[in-house]
Write a structure and sequence with these properties.
The complex is a heterotrimer.
Chain A (H helix, E strand, L loop, with lengths): L2 H10 L6 E5 L11 E7 L2 E8 L7 H5 L4 H8 L7 H16 L5 H29 L4 H21 L8 E2 L2 E2 L7 H24 L2 H7 L7 H7 L3 H5 L7 H4 L20 H23 L20 E8 L4 E8 L7 E5 L1 H7 L1 H5 L4 H11 L3 H5 L1
Antiparallel strand pairs in A: 1-2, 2-3, 4-5, 6-7, 7-8
Chain B lengths: L2 H11 L4 E2 L7 E5 L1 H13 L7 E9 L4 E8 L6 E8 L6 E3 L8 H12 L2 E3 L32
Parallel strand pairs in B: 2-5, 6-7
Antiparallel strand pairs in B: 1-2, 3-4, 4-5
Chain C lengths: L8 H14 L2 H38 L15 H11 L10 H19 L16 H9 L2 H11 L3 H32 L4 H6 L6 H4 L1 H18 L11 H4 L9 H26 L12 H9 L2 H20 L7 H29 L4
Helix pairs in contact in C: 1-2, 2-3, 2-12, 3-12, 4-5, 4-6, 4-12, 6-7, 7-10, 7-15, 10-12, 10-15, 12-14
Classes of the chains: A mainly alpha, B alpha/beta, C mainly alpha.
């Protein structure tokens, strides 16, 4: 066979046919109603196209009609797993606009509850991550420990998930007398239990095989896509708002900003596990040193922000949440924008998943820790 | 970090830009849509600024005109700047895309298009993102009316 | 009628004689078939129900919870309630699916383990098919099930089902090799494929103890490969509920779904039974060489209890895997088989031949 014939022969080999598959809106591993339109070649992913908006509730539009106290309650419904941190973002933004002096006690309480929220969110993520990879037992283990945190919340805030504990100016009521003791008990308990998480997943050969070198995201892409939180830091992007723009009581505690440079699923996994240790460290530093004082600064019944623009960023369990309030000196804001971490994180999914298999997409998605209401708002 | 220096840099690129006068959190630059793309490219690639992180992008409807607002910062130099692009054309508002400079803009521009109806020229995939494809109107515009879903008090 | 709990031969023969005495020969044969058929159907249904219940309880035990507790004492009637629900559910057939193949698939999947279970020796004399290629028959018949899975995936007209079925096809065909090779390792010692002979050959000790190191290696490979062959976790690639919703049986509902479900558990039983028979002496009590006293004490425990005890132990081991490990990816799964298990198996077979030739085994 001549060379020319060989080339034409190669050209006539039929190409494999690409096909589309709808992952979601009802799919076990999209964790809600996210729809991914996958273009597949066999099992290899050629393209991922997210379709959002199945639970878009137009929170930003609703904010334009509500008072500032009411807005706080809406933010619970965005990222329900870090609801306290969302509340805090709005409150800080409003307080910043009012130039309100916040009691020290409030700052410390907010920080402790934020870190507890982060812990409970990461516990849930860990359980779900294991389940996505087929280890269903982890899900129950995650929930077992999370239950204790929600119990603490229930006692102090009255609710277990959407707590509404923050109000502009402080927190709604003072902490429960048991709060400090129970939190300390929980930390001692969880310090023993967290190594169990490592035993169950981190050291497992199948798990490392499934996550190492999967869903790679370079540092440049992470910054360009705005991937923040543990997902961004696993790619080497130092984006921890708690370190870079400290708010509440983060300026007086010592903790490490977890940074990995591998940028794969395993790095994102490790970043979150390490972050749980850091969160416990922060809580331990603060829990015994809650200053005495008021739990709330005095505010007017009707809050009117002076004309201007206010931007507040906080670090939720998923990444950087930005609250952008434009005020025209009325009782409700002129425009509110929530820069949700999930929205930006999701946009990088296509880059991360291309060339991998369906099973890897599931792993990648669960290490991004998507919460769909946070994306759709 | 220091805003004066940044001001000088921006003025050297776009001489006819405005700065917001008030004591706001970040440095605000107001530019015209035709100058915006040039400024964005400069801020991203100039070694002195290196604004590689677009951490928020949105729009505001001020009844007479739109502002598209870009919050930019740098992971290297720690400059932070807010670019506001004033779009006075309410009928067919349009502006150049920056989603090739900051990839995160691709989704955020789709969101702004969806809710404000601002067209982004050269955007690779400009479709509605949150609402259905057959939705009529742009909900976050101030003149948006919806008798069914929005209850006025 | 003579009934002996340690040896069923006389019992079975007396039933045969009684049938022949009251019926003409042809009718007696047919009556025998019917009796065996009814016995097996009852057995399989009870087996399926109890295995589902056991799986739930074992899984709950690993997950620090209680499992089903509401229906019946300790939730024992839960699976019966589930079966009743499944029977009364509407059997949906999705639009555009190939109806004939769609219905056929569920039956093929369930028929394969029904046939395979016939060749398993439950106790001395309690054995339906005892022919000289028993082990070959079981492995051959149980691999028919994969046809059903492929048909189910193809005829459902659903891409998730199709991907699941293709994965499953690739997986079962590959792991079949390892299962058979690991069993062959023991066949080298027994010299026969007849299951009753294999059991008898372990009168002075089980092969896992007698067969030296290669037998232990063969057992581990057998457990891994057979778990993979029965599509159970961590090798449940075909279902992979977090990736493919439910894989090949996504579109099935009602009683046809119950068939897939039941088949999975009967397959589990068959694997455990084959493993117990070949490696742990089937119904043979634990004997150690010539320790007369010890052997006599062990003989007091009826063989049927020995057999089901061994099966329960193996099933527990397989469930332990399932509820501990994450799932592998399809390419890792095939790599494991073709690059590791198969070469190890071949070398192990050679090693066993060497052991058998030099008489290093007991």
């Amino acid at each position: 066979m001549t060379e020319q014939e060989l080339i034409t022969n190669i050209e006539t080999v039929p190409e494999t046919q690409e096909y589309f598959i709808n992952m979601g809106p009802q799919h076990p591993s999209t964790h809600g109603v996210l729809r991914l339109l996958l273009t597949l070649d066999g099992e290899i992913i050629k393209k991922v196209e997210p379709h959002l908006g199945y639970i878009h509730r137009s929170i930003e539009k609703m904010c334009e009609k509500d008072s500032y106290q009411q807005i706080v309650h809406l933010t619970d419904r965005m990222d329900y797993l870090s609801c306290h941190i969302n509340n805090e973002a709005v409150c800080l933004c409003v307080e910043n606009g009012l130039q309100l002096e916040i009691p020290e006690r409030v700052k410390v309480i907010r920080t402790i509850i934020s870190e507890l929220t982060r812990l409970s969110s990461h516990q849930l993520w860990w359980g779900v991550m294991g389940m996505d990879l087929g280890a269903i037992t982890t899900f129950l283990y995650g929930f077992r420990d999370r239950e204790l945190i929600t119990d603490i919340f229930e006692e102090t805030c009255g609710a277990r998930l959407t707590m509404n504990y923050n109000v502009p100016g402080g927190v709604m009521f003072d902490i429960h007398p048991n709060f400090q003791k129970r939190t300390k008990d929980f930390i001692t308990y969880f310090r023993k239990k967290l190594p169990e998480y490592d035993e169950l997943l981190t050291g497992n050969v199948i798990f490392t095989e499934r996550t190492k070198d999967i869903g790679y995201l370079s540092k440049e892409d992470a910054i360009s896509y705005g991937v923040t939180g543990p997902s961004g830091r696993a790619s080497g992007f130092a984006c921890d708002v708690r370190k870079r723009f400290p708010y509440s009581a983060y300026d007086r505690v010592e903790f490490k900003e977890i940074i990995y440079t591998e940028g794969d699923c395993f790095a994102r996994y490790k970043a979150r596990i390490d972050e749980m240790w850091e969160s416990m460290k922060i809580i331990e530093q603060l829990i015994d040193n809650i200053p005495e004082g008021e739990h709330k600064a005095k505010t007017k019944a009707v809050i009117k922000l002076p004309e201007g623009e206010y931007y507040q960023r906080v670090e939720t369990a998923r990444g950087e949440l930005g609250v952008y309030i434009v005020s025209d000196n009325k009782k409700s804001p002129y425009r509110v924008k929530f820069r949700s971490p999930g929205f930006s994180n999701l946009s990088a999914l296509d880059t991360m998943a291309r060339g991998n298999k369906i099973a890897d997409l599931v792993a990648t998605m669960s290490t991004l820790d998507l919460v769909i209401p946070d994306i759709d708002r | 970090m220091d805003n004066e220096k940044l001001k000088n840099i921006v003025t050297s690129v776009i001489p006819e830009c405005e700065f917001s006068p008030d004591e706001s959190q970040f440095l605000n630059v107001i530019v015209k849509p035709e100058d915006f793309r040039k400024l964005a490219e400069f801020l991203r690639y100039d070694p002195e600024t290196q604004m590689d992180y677009l951490f928020c992008m949105t729009a505001i409807d001020w009844n007479t005109h739109f502002f598209t607002i870009y919050h930019l910062t740098s992971s290297v130099t720690n400059f932070t700047v807010v670019i506001k692009v004033k779009i006075t054309d309410r009928e067919t508002p349009n502006i150049d895309t920056v989603c090739d400079i900051w990839k995160t803009a691709e989704f955020h521009e789709r969101e702004v298009y969806d809710l404000f109806g601002i067209k982004f020229n050269n955007h690779p995939d400009l479709r509605r993102i949150l609402l259905e494809d057959d939705w009529v109107g742009y909900p976050l515009r101030k003149d948006y009316k919806d008798e069914v879903n929005i209850v006025e008090l | 009628m003579n009934f002996n709990i340690y040896d069923f031969t006389e019992f079975v023969n007396s039933i045969k004689l009684w049938l022949n005495s009251v019926l003409p020969p042809a009718a007696a044969d047919i009556a025998g078939f019917v009796i065996i058929g009814i016995c097996f159907l009852t057995f399989i249904v009870i087996l399926g129900l109890s295995l589902v219940y056991i799986e739930r309880k074992v899984c709950a035990f690993f997950q620090q919870r209680l499992g089903p507790m509401r229906v019946g004492f300790w939730g024992t009637a839960q699976t019966i309630a589930d079966i009743i629900k499944l029977v009364f559910k509407e059997p949906l057939i999705s639009k555009g699916s190939d109806k004939f193949l769609f219905n056929l698939a569920a039956f093929i999947v369930i028929i394969a383990p029904f046939m395979a279970i016939a060749a398993i020796p439950f106790a001395k004399g309690l054995h339906v098919l005892d022919f000289d290629i028993g082990l070959f028959f079981i492995t051959a018949i149980s691999s028919i099930g994969v046809t059903g899975i492929l048909l189910a995936g193809w005829s459902s007209n659903n891409k998730y089902s199709l991907i699941g079925a293709m994965r499953s096809g690739a997986q079962i065909v590959s792991y079949e090799l390892s299962v058979i090779l690991s069993l062959l390792t023991i066949i080298v010692l027994t010299g026969s494929l007849q299951l009753s002979v294999i059991v008898e050959s372990q009168r002075d000790g089980w092969w896992i103890f007698k067969g030296n190191i290669p037998a232990i290696i063969a057992f581990f490979i057998f457990i891994i490969a057979s778990t993979a062959e029965s599509n159970r976790g961590p090798f449940d690639m075909a279902e992979a509920e977090s990736e493919l919703t439910a894989g090949f049986h996504t579109e099935y509902s009602g009683i046809k779904f119950a068939f897939f479900f039941l088949a999975e558990y009967i397959n589990l039983f068959i694997i455990a039974a084959v493993g117990a028979t070949v490696f742990f002496g089937g119904w043979m009590p634990l004997h150690i060489g010539n320790f007369e006293f010890f052997n006599n004490v062990m003989d007091f425990i009826p063989p049927i209890i020995w057999f089901f005890g061994k099966i329960a132990a193996i099933i527990f081991l397989i469930m332990w895997f399932k509820w501990t490990f994450p799932r592998l990816r399809i390419d890792q799964l095939l790599t494991l088989e073709w690059k590791y298990l198969l070469p190890i198996n071949l070398i192990n077979l050679l090693l066993m031949a060497l052991v058998a030739l030099s008489g290093w085994h007991l």
